[in-house]
């Protein structure tokens, strides 16, 4: 997990996160926000398969890249919803979504606690 400023986007941090990864992934499944030549090139350089759909273009525009469009497995891409639902649950906590903490350390500690709370809830609750 990398902590950035609240206004920073997540896609620019992708390469830093990929370098930190202890175990190299075989496949990266991401949404259209990660569709960039830089990210695709970095993944190819590490022999990681990219499951990232191409961004849509405005009507009448030409394709951004030469060659055939990247193939995306619908089955693999549909598994992204697991992460999307996790972040949806986390954003229900106002403190996570609004980032009330002023210090990075205290916010990071809360984020870790929030992840633990969401992930452990099924084991310690009568209702899912």
TrEMBL record:
Chain segments annotated as coiled-coil in the UniProt record: none
Biased composition (Basic residues): 61-71
Superkingdom, natural source: Bacteria
UniProt cross-references to Pfam families, sorted A to Z: DDE_Tnp_1 (PF01609)
Molecular function via GO: DNA binding; transposase activity
An example Gene Ontology biological process: DNA transposition
Entries under InterPro entries matching the protein: Transposase_11
Domain Transposase IS4-like: 2-117
Region (Disordered): 54-75
Stored PANTHER family: BLR1914 PROTEIN, PHP DOMAIN PROTEIN
Descriptive protein name: Transposase IS4-like domain-containing protein
Protein species of origin: Pontibacter flavimaris
Organism classification: Bacteria, Pseudomonadati, Bacteroidota, Cytophagia, Cytophagales
């Amino acid at each position: 997990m990398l902590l950035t400023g609240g206004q920073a986007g997540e896609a620019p941090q992708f390469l830093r996160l990929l370098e930190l990864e202890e175990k190299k992934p075989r496949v990266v499944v991401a949404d259209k926000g990660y569709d960039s030549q830089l990210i695709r090139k970095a993944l190819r350089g590490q022999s990681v398969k990219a499951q990232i759909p191409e961004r849509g273009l405005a009507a009448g525009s030409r394709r951004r890249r030469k060659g055939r469009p990247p193939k995306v497995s619908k089955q693999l891409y549909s598994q992204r919803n697991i992460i999307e639902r996790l972040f949806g649950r986390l954003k229900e906590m106002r403190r996570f979504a609004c980032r009330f903490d002023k210090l990075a350390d205290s916010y990071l500690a809360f984020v870790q606690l929030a992840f633990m709370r969401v992930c452990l809830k099924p084991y310690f609750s009568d209702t899912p």
